[in-house]
Amino acid sequence: MIHEPLTEPARLRDSFGRVIDYLRISITDRCNFRCVYCMPEEGFPATPKDESLTIGEIARLARVAAGLGITKVRLTGGEPLLRKDLPWLAAQIASLPSVEDISVTTNGFLLAEQAKALAESGLTRVNVSLDTLDPERFVKLARRGNLQTVLDGIRAAQEAGLSPVKLNCVLMKGANDHEAPSFAEMTMNEEIHVRFIELMPMRWNLDEGPSFEAFSAHQGQGLLQIKQASGGMLNDLEMRKMYVSSETVMRDIEAKLGPLEPAQLKTNGPARSYRLAGAKGTVGFISQISNDLCSRCNRLRLTHDGFLRPCLMSDGELDLRTPMRAGATDAEIADLFRHVVAHKPERHYLAEGQTVTGRGMSQIGG
Ligand code: SAM
Ligand code: SF4
Fold first, then answer.
1. Does the beta carbon of 105 lie inside 6 Å of ligand 1?
2. What is the pLDDT of residue 268?
């Protein structure tokens, strides 16, 4: 009897022993919202069209990554639903045999009209970012769009079978942190999974925002009003002041709604998940500042213009676009992936005061 040789599936492992099997791809740096912690009112300067990867180039890089052991892919941005060819790309990636999970992170504004096409493309699920359940506060935080359209998008995603739908919520002291129990309450009667993401102070806009004196006179809600008036984006210092730890959020929820019991949720990545008694959905916490997620980090990030980053919070990145356009083979591109993995830093140092001065979250892909 002839036995087939046993071959190990491909695996990427960094120099700290972490298996890297998750690629987040920013497919555009454009956005139809202007969230106060992510973009200034006027947006960032537009990237020349030929600097962004074509959809075919993104599909090729995803294929090379899958061949190296990437099994999970998330498409993000900017706002990924702004790219008309998103369903085509999702279908290409979904057809890669080693990819088990392909998802999208969206602000939800265009989801109602696209949920069905996305589900049909092979996309597994969506995460919708939503920071408030109050229509007026929505306009202050996102500065574009409206709450009802996003809620309609969430409903459409559920109806299209893009489940489980997860809601990503960033809470800020004095602005929307009191809404944590209302978000948690949403999980009682619906299979919806709310995850609170700690605000990450990233110093992308060093010359933006009010002076420190103006800042220290206003906190929380005041800061939001200043941003509204100035059209700016929260800067590093302001984000540090508005930061709310997961522990605080958890305490607030438990004080109002009772104990959160540990729960299991498949595909919940770095979130710690809990359930309120009798709830259909779960409440999760992504605590990248207060808790050590780095030791379990399994990610790489590809920017919309073709740079591969081993860490969201460190400025290092490697250009894949130039070699690819100069005719690099798949094997040569695979080597560049391995090089980036080999240089993945052990952790970020935000809690120690490290600042990230390079690109914005919308440019890297949050
Ligand atoms: N536009 C899409 C959206 O909002 O879902 C995808 C891109 S957005 C950059 C991805 C996620 O990053 C969103 O959930 C957003 O709330 C989060 N984000 C952006 N800036 C952040 C910051 N400074 N701290 C924590 N989360 C942030
Ligand atoms: Fe746009 Fe998402 Fe950034 Fe908000 S968080 S401005 S929706 S990219």
1. yes
2. 58
Measured distance CA(164)–CA(9) in Å, rounded: 28
For 176-201, the pLDDT digits (tens) are 999 999 999 999 999 999 999 999 87
| Below-50 pLDDT ranges, the chain | 1, 204-221
Residue 43 to residue 61: CA distance in whole angstroms: 28
What count of residues does the chain have? 366
Rounded distance from Cα 37 to ligand 2 centre (Å): 8
Distance in Å, CA 34 to ligand 2 centroid: 6
pTM, 2 dp:
0.90
- Give the model's pLDDT for residue 359: 74
Domains along the sequence of the chain with CATH? 22-364 (3.20.20.70)
Atom of ligand 1 at shortest range from CA of 360:
20
Residue from 104, 106, 170 to probe ligand 1 pocket by mutation (most atoms less than 8 Å from CB): 170
Taking the C-alpha atoms of residue 24 and residue 309, their distance in angstroms, rounded to an integer, is 10
The helix or strand, by DSSP H or E, that contains position 226, with its residue range, turns out to be helix 221-230
Who lines ligand 2 at CB under 6 A?
31, 33-35, 38-39, 77-79, 107, 129, 362
User: Closest Cα to residue 340, out of 360, 359, 316, 363?
Assistant: 316
* pLDDT recorded at residue 165: 93
